[in-house]
Amino acid sequence: MNIKMVTVGKLKEKYFKAGIAEYAKRLGAFCKFQIIECQDEKAPESLSEAQDLKVKQIEGERILSKIKDKEFVILLDLRGKELTSEQLAKKIDDLSTYGTSDITFVIGGSLGVSPEVVKRADMSICFGKFTLPHQLMRLVLTEQIYRSFMIINHRTYHK
Ligand SMILES: C[S@@+](CC[C@H](N)C(=O)[O-])C[C@H]1O[C@@H](n2cnc3c(N)ncnc32)[C@H](O)[C@@H]1O
């Protein structure tokens, strides 16, 4: 199973890097895991609606260029569906059982993602109504993917 995370913007903070590296290492026992960073588009603090859309579209093109047709895309979006850890684990397990070996999670930039990325997504999920910074979202998602494999493999990690 190949699990990919496509993200916008750089991971800067050492403490996020360390946490993600730890879960990525653990994930190595269950899947090939990779994180792809797309460059974020510089934008002024206050944007018109058209400028906001333009920034998201430029970032969206960068995101979509990293995704192949065969990949099952799970978008992280505040407007997405809330899942439990067990439901995410079941989704990953079902996809793998029924022949999908490439799952790609997408984390957007500071403005979110373009309509084109929303359209490409096979599923959109939400981690609650709180907006998380993209670097923290990356860490939380990596842990939840690891948790999914613990659940799938009936390990004691998940309580
Ligand atoms: C700083 S947030 C941008 C939020 C943006 N204002 C919006 O309304 O979509 C950056 C990215 O982190 C992810 N994200 C942040 N909080 C999230 C949450 N609670 N659930 C799902 N994804 C989240 C999304 O992928 C989002 O595009």
Q: What does this protein look like?
A:
The protein has a single domain (2-152), classed as 3-Layer(aba) Sandwich (Alpha/beta knot), CATH 3.40.1280.10. The chain has helices at 14-27, 49-64, 85-97, 115-120, 134-152, and strands at 2-8, 32-38, 72-82, 102-107, 123-126. The mean pLDDT is 96. By secondary structure, it is of the alpha/beta class. The two termini are 24 Å apart. Bound molecules: S-adenosylmethionine (SAM). S-adenosylmethionine is lined by residues 76-78, 107-108, 110-113, 126-128, 130-134, 137. The site of S-adenosylmethionine has 18 residues, from strand 3 and helix 5.
Compose a concise summary of this entry.
With 159 residues, the protein is α/β, with parallel strands linked by helices. The chain contains five helices and five strands; from the N terminus they run βαβαβαβαβα.
Kindly report the spatial arrangement of strands forming the biggest sheet: 2-1-4-3-5
For the biggest sheet, the summary is: 5 strands, parallel
Radius of gyration: 16 Å
CATH topology: Alpha/beta knot
- The global form is globular
The share of residues in extended strands comes to 15-25%
Alpha-beta content class:
alpha/beta
CATH architecture: 3-Layer(aba) Sandwich
The CATH class name reads Alpha Beta
The arrangement of helices and strands along the chain is EHEHEHEHEH
Terminal Cα separation, in Å?
24 Å
The CATH superfamily title:
SPOUT methyltransferase, trefoil knot domain
Tally of discrete structural domains: 1
InterPro entries: Alpha/beta_knot_MTases, RlmH-like, tRNA_m1G_MTases_N
Protein name: Ribosomal RNA large subunit methyltransferase H
Catalytic activity: pseudouridine(1915) in 23S rRNA + S-adenosyl-L-methionine = N(3)-methylpseudouridine(1915) in 23S rRNA + S-adenosyl-L-homocysteine + H(+)
Enzyme class: transferase
